[in-house]
Amino acid sequence: MSWFLELWSFPFMQHALLAGAMVGLLCGYYGVFMVQRGLSFLGDGLAHAAFGGVALALLLGWTPLYVALPFTVVVSLGITALRERTHLGGDTAVGIFFAVSVALGVLFLGLKKDYSVDAFAYLFGSILGVTGFDLWAVALLLILSALLIPFTWRSLAYATFDSELARSDRVPVRLLDYLLSVLIALTVVVSVKVVGIVLVASFLVIPAATARLLSPTLYRMTLTSSLLGILSSVVGLLISYQVDVPSGSTIILSQAFIFVVAALVSGKARG
Amino acid sequence: MVALETDNLTVRFGDFLALDGVSFTLPESAFLALIGPNGAGKSTLIRALLGLVAPSSGTVQVLGQQPGQFPQHIGYVPQIKTFDRSFPALALELVLTGVLRGWVGRIKPEHKALALEALERVGAEKLAARAVGRLSGGELQRVYLARALVRKPKLILLDEPATGIDVIGEKDMYSLLERYRAESGATLAMITHDLDVARYHASHVAILNRKLFGFGDPQTVMNDDCLARAYGHAHHHHPKGVTL
Asked: For a tag site, which of A8, A87, A126, A198 has the least CB within 10 Å?
């Protein structure tokens, strides 16, 4: 306990734990819809779209979040529109935008000419360097999401199960698809500074996939995934502090460890 | 009173003409069998009645309203397709979408009682706590039927409900539907490929192949000429009633 209090006495660690827990919660929640809609690849695609936005901001000399947010939201809406209006599968739509965003990111960084440390900070994240501004951005999105849950979860879940059945009951499926794509894009962008472009997809996929193995209902899956998101972030951070290794890797490895345990437990339960 | 009315209903998907000037009037408490070859537009017609597909021209009235206005009065049994069997859901939860018109979070006792009653009605109360991904085709069809009945609908739309059900289960299902129709005065509209079901269970038959080739009392409408024109070839009837 005294070890934890000592750790908590460092402001950077308070920021890191709070940011990790909030990002874990957000990604755990939205990851459920991504996994169940077969859009696990979307997290990777949007994270790389965020890279394009960050690179553009660095080129222009602007605050990365202000450019990455609209850039990633537009890409996410584009992916949703492409899936809706064509016969292309979700992974194909994501793959196209993924490639174009990375190409744009590389182009913008190339035009900037000088070596950019900031771009690499976004690639791998810097949870121990989270600022008050970053923390507020995550907290605001968390509050917005919490306010939306009572109005959207039932319909999003229904549309995830069977969009046509939901539409026959006048659920505004199309509107919800676009709303979800915006919220996932916002989640990815605010998470990227904390966990990095390379690792953000794991936050969206691994806790949700683990929760799926342990949950018989979507309601339980949502709760479990959200809790696992928080738990793995906190445990990963504490291990990182104790062993003195990069926190991104310890968080993802914590998630993976819980996934393996869940797979073994659920496999045993099935016999 | 009229349950369903279409007037010159035409539905196009780009260049593809799915329904071409379909007009009919179905009275309340009728049992309509929609028959026709594959790709005849039967599912498109059901989707138009549900408000899922907008007419390119013509009009549709469902229970005296525009389609999709009162989904609480309509029980829809979709075609069992390859849905995502990895979706974490219990049969009880699927039935409850019929009550809540949304997915259920924590299940309230009164909702659970309603769902169990509906499952019991279709002889599937034992399936309540079963994962939908582990249900057989026939079991899943019963659960969808319970989902349709739980909202005590005035109109039931069924898209090939016999798919995946064995002969006994199919017979049970038609008895159940007939009983519900007799008790409630509800209207049924069902897509089927089984001409004997249309002939012996339905009060009305619509023979469709993009255009409406016949509509009315099955004994009158289901003649060889009409069927041959809709299906493009003559039908053969086995003496025991099996249609080939």
From this structure: A87
